[in-house]
Amino acid sequence: MNLPSMLDDAVGHYGVFAVNLRTNKTIAYHEKDIFPSASTIKIPIMVELYRRVEEENLSLDAMVTMRAEDQVDGSGVLFDLTPGQAYSLRDLNMLMMTVSDNTATNLLIDFLGVDAINRTIHRLGIHDTELVRRLQRVPTERSSVNRTTAYDMAQLVIRLAHGEVISTAVSNRMIDVMKRCQGSVSITALVPQQHYTGQPPTVTVAHKTGSLSDACHDVGVVYMSDGLSYAAALMSQGAPYNTLAPLLRRIGRSLPALLR
Predict the structure, then answer these.
(1) What domains lie within the chain, and their CATH numbers?
(2) In this structure, what DSSP letter does residue 71 have?
(3) Would you give per-residue pLDDT tens digits along the chain (260 residues)?
């Protein structure tokens, strides 16, 4: 089944871009349509953090104090912890990328600066993605939202997978962090659906999810022990999350067969 037959009449709006990292075989569907980035914007924030570490000798051990006014709800754990504590940039990044902590994300945005994060995004050739404001601020700081496309996010994780973001060593470190993401996986099936005569291949996923009440995304790299590796960005909006998420997982289950 191809993506148009799966998605053209589906409830909601979908954007897909996926690439076989060995053969460059590509699957694309509305890949340059703009979506609210939700928590996928945390990947570029991490990139700017590691750029500072590599190019400006920033230490990941530098400490940032969390004030009560910094705490925002949504995903994560810092909202429930005692203000006045200091956390290292390393720990804030790990919280941002593994449990999608919004307070940790805002602390990093404040430390790094919105303009600096956007400059690094554009420096990497990612032109339709923009960090506009911090997360979960009420009232919102600006009327517009953080935005991206499936194409942009896929290009970013393709470059990470190829070791082309800042340096090979730094790209690999960021991929390792993304392997620890605790969000549900949609860009592949962790138990492959294909029929194998022997043992099915093991699957390793380095990814970042993002969700809103009416949006569901998953972006990352899939490594399969049978030799298939691919990068993918799946995005959806325009329907309740519980409607979008099952179809996003169905798309992800189809990608290994479509990309072989």
Answers:
(1) 3-259 (3.40.710.10)
(2) -
(3) 688 888 988 999 999 999 999 999 999 999 999 999 999 999 999 999 999 999 999 999 999 999 999 999 888 999 999 999 999 999 999 999 999 999 999 999 999 999 999 999 999 999 999 999 888 654 454 557 899 999 999 999 999 999 999 999 999 999 999 999 999 999 998 765 555 566 667 899 999 999 999 999 999 999 999 999 999 999 999 999 999 999 999 999 999 999 99
Q: Is 132 exposed, middle or buried (0-12, 13-18, 19+ CB in 10 A)?
A: middle
For residue 60, the one-letter residue type is L
Structure tokens at 153: 């996010």
Q: Which residues pair with 104 in a beta bridge?
A: none
Check if the beta carbon of residue 154 is closer than 8 Å to that of residue 231: yes
Distance, in Å, from the CA atom of 23 to the CA atom of 252, rounded to the nearest integer, reads 19
The model's pTM is 0.93
Secondary structure percentages of the chain, helix, strand, coil, to 5: 40, 20, 40
